[in-house]
Design brief:
Elements (H helix, E strand, L loop, with lengths): L11 H26 L2 H19 L6 H12 L3 H7 L5 E6 L5 E7 L18 E5 L19 H7 L3 E4 L26 H20 L4 E6 L1 H12 L7 E7 L11 H9 L3 H6 L8 H7 L2 H16 L8 H8 L8 H13 L35 E6 L7 H6 L6 E5 L6 H4 L3 H4 L1 H11 L16
Parallel strand pairs: 3-4, 3-5, 5-6, 6-7, 7-8
Antiparallel strand pairs: 1-2, 2-4
Subcellular location: Membrane
GO molecular function: hydrolase activity, acting on ester bonds
Family: Belongs to the AB hydrolase superfamily. Lipase family.
């Protein structure tokens, strides 16, 4: 099909999709404005009506006793502290100031269930584990499970670890800067580069200063792994501070989305996202829809979106677990960080953000320009990948080709992306692998904590 002259990389159907997107976005903004003007009683009426309609269509709800009650408790928890208190844990809150002026919220679980740290904000003498969330998420995704035995951090705490949780700039717990307010474009002018240059190393430095530990173990999920790949590749000294890096559902250079139209449109011109969503936070109205929709309806909407965009069907995650976890799934992220991911997918390269966004991409035998790539083969820390073989975002062979020879990879049969966090059998398939890896690299002489040529290639 011939291309139109304007934005010549787009096809005619791409323009149709773009126009439809603008109309849908305008309609959503109108709805958002109307809802802001409505009294709470009216909003509650819409919420109750959506519940009645849902039960009329799907039938009366079936009672699942304990799981249903726990799911409701998790769903209604307002923040990280309340989620932990459901299971009897008392977290600590910390704040770290990055070198470029962002204030990041950190959480810590220093003591076992029912216990408290006698010296808050100080060392426990335990081995330290740091967990970092994925894209459009915050630290709550680690603790919003309906059973404590399936929650990795709770298991780690009971095994004697000092567990810390990070948060990216801009999300629910890190929406502050000493230089710019969150309503300015300047505040949201960050990408994966900034996570790697500042958020990850500055958070780790703070944690090691508080705990007096020499090293910690890093466990990342999805984009949390990409941020570690990037940070370790550009900060050689950081490798000496991480005794092992465990990557859950690792992300580096995904092939793309399962929705062909969206995938093609964004790869053709990633900066169209700026045109559609602006230059601040993306999908900021998600919390509005969550507040007015009955939770099972909101869950159905997320389910359909995940199938359409990523071909994830979530068969390994129970209905109640999805309802509980999806309420804590979304957190604020910059449009620029999403644009960065589409640049990575378009160029099939784990690269730094391309500031030359307006130049056309030309593929010739000799290129005159190439965005800087993260030198991930230079990572010295031990790396263990735990990936699902049904995860559309993981091309394990392409990933291993960009990582050092000492990388180990473990396949999780039948697992999709989110299954690694919330699957019904993570306590059987995932958590034991994590514990085994930590026992191997943490609880022994530091000199032996490096991999000795055991490659997954």
């Amino acid at each position: 099909m011939p291309r139109l002259p304007l934005l010549g990389r787009l096809f005619f159907q791409d323009y149709i999709a773009l126009i439809v997107g603008f109309v849908a976005l305008a309609f959503e903004n109108l709805i958002h404005l109307i809802i802001l003007c409505l009294p709470k009683s009216v909003i509650n009426w819409f919420y109750k009506r959506s519940r009645v309609i849902f039960h009329f269509i799907s039938g009366a709800p079936q009672d699942a006793a304990e799981e249903k009650k726990r799911a409701n408790d998790v769903l209604n928890a307002r923040d990280f502290d309340e989620l932990c208190s459901i299971f009897g844990y008392t977290p600590e809150d910390h704040v770290v100031l990055t070198k470029d002026g962002y204030l990041l919220g950190l959480h810590r679980l220093p003591a076992k269930r029912g216990e408290k740290n006698p010296s808050p904000g100080y060392t426990t003498g335990k081995p330290v584990v740091y967990l970092h969330h994925g894209l459009l998420m915050n630290s709550e995704v680690w603790v919003c499970l309906t059973e404590a035995q399936r929650s990795l951090p709770f298991v780690l705490v009971e095994q004697g670890y000092d567990v810390w949780f990070g948060n990216n700039r801009g999300n629910k717990y890190s929406k502050k800067s000493i230089h710019h307010g969150p309503n300015t474009n300047k505040f949201w002018d960050f990408s994966i580069d900034d996570f790697a240059w500042h958020d990850i190393p500055d958070s780790i430095s703070y944690i090691l200063d508080v705990t007096k530990a020499k090293t910690l173990s890093y466990i990342g999920f999805s984009q949390g792994t990409a941020q570690a790949f990037a940070a370790l590749s550009i900060h050689p000294q950081l490798n000496d501070r991480i005794n092992v890096f465990i990557a859950l559902a690792p992300a580096m250079n995904p092939a793309g989305l399962s929705a062909p139209l969206v995938d093609g449109l964004m790869k053709a011109s990633p900066t169209l996202l700026f045109l559609i969503f602006g230059r601040k936070a993306i999908l900021s109205s998600a919390t509005m829809w969550q507040s007015i929709l009955y939770p099972p309806i909101f869950t159905k909407f997320i389910d359909r979106s995940l199938i359409w965009l990523f071909n994830w069907h979530s068969h390994n995650i129970s209905t109640y677990q999805r309802m509980a976890a999806f309420a804590h799934l979304y957190s604020f992220a910059s449009v620029k960080s999403i644009v960065h991911w589409f640049q990575i997918m378009r160029n099939a390269s784990f690269q730094m953000y391309d500031d030359d966004v307006l130049s056309p991409v030309t593929r010739t035998s000799v290129s005159s320009y190439r965005p800087a790539r993260f030198p991930t083969r230079n990572i010295a820390s031990p790396i263990v990948l735990l990936y699902g073989d049904s995860d559309s975002l993981v091309d394990i062979n392409a990933m291993l080709a960009e990582l050092p020879e000492h990388t180990l990879a473990k396949r999780l049969h039948g697992y999709e992306h989110l299954d690694v966090l919330w699957g019904r059998n993570v306590h059987v398939d995932v958590i034991p692998e994590v514990l085994g890896t930590l026992n191997r690299f943490v609880r022994r002489d530091p000199e032996d904590s490096k991999l000795n040529g055991e490659a997954a290639h």
